[in-house]
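Researcher: Please predict.
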Amino acid sequence: SGPVGHRASATERRKLVCRRRHRTPAPGVQPARPQHPPLRATSGERNQNKWRKSRFPDWPPRDTMGVMDTLTRSTADTVAKADAKKWAMDRSEALRVVFHALDGDDSGSIEMEEVLHLATGMCQTMSEDDARAWFQEMDKDGDATVDEAEYLEAMLKLTDDLSPQQFEHRIKDLLARTNKEVTDPRWYYHCENNREYLEAEVVPLVESGLNEMMRAIEAERLRVASGKDWDEDGHVPPDWRPIRPLQFLGEYLRENSRTMVRKREEEARLAAEAAAKAEYLNRTFDEMDREQKLRYSFDKIDGDGNGALDFDELVFVCRKINPGKGVEEARTQLSWMDKDGDGQVDQDEYVNAILEIMQDVDEETFVTGVKRVLTAVQFAKADRIEKLKMVFEHVDEDNSGELDRNELTKLAVALVPGGDEVKVRKTMKWLDANGDAAVSFEEFKGPMIEATEGLDDDQFDAAVHKLLAAEGEAVEPDPADDLPPKFGAYVTQFPSHAKCKWIGVKRVDSMTRDEKKICVIDCRSPDERAVSIIKDSVPLGDVKFVSFEDNNVDAVAGGADVSAACEGADVVVCVSAVGAEGGIAAPVLAEKLEGKVEVRNLVGGIVAWYNAGGEVVDGEGKPVEAVHPGQRRCIGFITRARKNAFKFPKEEK
């Protein structure tokens, strides 16, 4: 509208239409407030309100602070419950896992050093002396080891004051420091030095992998662009695939990881050793140099093929190579052999040490010593056929594979000193089945097996040793060779072992079966005899033995009257705990008996007898499952299947 009579222009008419269409108020006119329908809650808001009312009955609160207190209390309770659930570790189960991780040889028990590792890890304020005292208290049965039951009882008490968080942290830390691989995620421990490891090794490896991947991708692009890989029609081959970055990077990281690098280095080392071994194995023994002969002998000694010898086995070997040196001197010279201090001697350490020890020995003595070691090792592992093969090869000097008349003469002299031509001809006729004046091993084997069929193992071995002796003299096998390696090495270091005649458990058992009369003289202290004795043994007297320097065995044996007990005996056997006292008493008693009966020391003593299944009885003659090992250090030599009932009393603190 406008003044009367005014006609609106086209522009004004258009503005009027726009105002009406958009309901835009005229200038100077206040627009009316629009009337909206009442707001309704959405479905999400309605569900949220229902949750609040179910969780908080007094919702909505009257004040804001009440809301905050309610929410805070609820959140704290939820977090506390979550933490309790997080740290809810079954302590007995966790300690069993640690026990089996520390039990490296799966023997069902852990020893002193393992317990020290465990105790100082669980209780960081515990000193080593405290841990040793705790070990003595924990070892209820006094067997110098802790089984699972003893361990659980002690560890549950030790960790009782630890919070759940502290307990779990200590458990995982101990497992991380053992050699057992942790596969259960419950026991995984994120080590504190992981960040340093990631920064020092992983990150540079990833960067190197990314750079290598970029170079590979660029090289691939250039190769594809050049058409080198295209087919005749100008297309990329159907089996072509572009580089996959994640796959490429993953394979690079795996192949260049520390584990794989070490694996390749180990494979290269083993390959080099195999090549070197093949090189000297292609030679005859006489063509080998000293180092190759020692490597060859090491391989023969290392029966389990683990590439290492323990120290006691090595001392025994050195005695065989160079008999002129005393055991203690050999042990002193070899104490530096284990260069890396791992308690074992690998091939390089062995070769270097023996070469240094034998550097002043002439070649003939060296070769003889190595051959004696090889013979001893081969003999210990051989059956009767293989031992006869050793005899055959020893007599077959020209390595022709057959024994001629001269070689059979040598064999006859070894068997019967002073053998004449008549005996040689009889032997030839006996062995030479086809009458061709030469004896092959097959011809040699049959009659020899038949002739030795009635001999027990000890008698057979003695006969074979006699044939293998350099000058035809009988060489009696050392019974210590039949003992476990560590036990045998311990026994052979006794000064008395080289000075007296000895006898093994097998030989005693064989003589018993042959109904030979054996007089057993018990050379132990009264305390040891009170635990158990060999049935019908005769006590030597009030023996006291602390060491070879501190004992009264010589005096007691010199004053003992055992002539009546030994009358009519085929052999007198001196018995002690592991052979120490018996080795001192045997020569004294032999002199007192003036050679009327042979006196020998039982190698390994009553412990070897007990391990072999020999019966021991108490003072009333009742069989018992108990034996006194003499000293605490020797209790580990008792390896009988049934548990030894004897326990050392606990040491006073």
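Model: The chain has 28 helices and 13 strands.
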